[in-house]
Design brief:
Order of helices and strands: HHHEEHHHHHH
Strand order of the largest sheet: 1-2
Helix content: 55-70%
Shape: flat
Largest sheet: 2 strands, antiparallel
């Protein structure tokens, strides 16, 4: 029994020494040493340190409102609204063969906006790739010994489009 008491005393002394050592040492951030915070709590701490929750950073001016709702103070990105005549020209240009990307650059709007205008007008969208005549020409050029790069330059399309049409025609394997 005396050996057990001595062992318990040694454990108690060593624990006390450790606690005193920790109390006297500057160990930096004890948060990172002794705990793993949840991601939500990490986000909260990070925001708090950046000052997101300081009251003086919030706008103390009440937002301007009218009968339609709050008024936007400043537009971050200027918007381009097309008139009906411009949308008509956009549709005509698309039907004439312009790509969506080219139309977006021409009218200075986003590609998605071009697509929405075309959808609203009921325009049947072109599928990417070569039409039947261009695909037949690609097959003839390939059989004549032209490389896919040369065919793509001749037809004005990407090399991957040429390869896909050659695979559909059974000239190349899909793998």
């Amino acid at each position: 029994p005396s050996a057990v008491n001595t062992s318990d005393n040694k454990k108690a002394l060593s624990r006390d020494k450790f606690v005193n050592y920790v109390a006297t040492q500057d160990m930096g951030s004890r948060r990172s040493t002794f705990s793993n915070l949840s991601p939500k709590l990490n986000a909260l701490v990070s925001r708090w340190k950046r000052g997101v929750y300081r009251a003086h950073q919030r706008g103390d001016i009440t937002p301007i409102r009218d009968d339609r709702g709050p008024v936007v103070r400043e537009i971050a990105i200027p918007q381009t609204f097309l008139k009906e005549t411009e949308v008509d020209r956009l549709v005509d240009d698309y039907l004439a063969g312009f790509t969506v990307r080219a139309l977006a650059q021409k009218y200075e709007i986003h590609r998605g906006t071009v697509s929405k205008h075309l959808t609203r007008r009921g325009v049947v969208r072109r599928t990417p790739g070569l039409d039947i005549d261009d695909a037949a020409e690609a097959v003839q050029l390939h059989r004549g010994g032209s490389s896919m790069r040369a065919i793509s330059r001749t037809l004005g399309v990407d090399r991957k489009v040429v390869r896909a049409s050659l695979v559909r025609a059974g000239i190349l394997s899909a793998a």
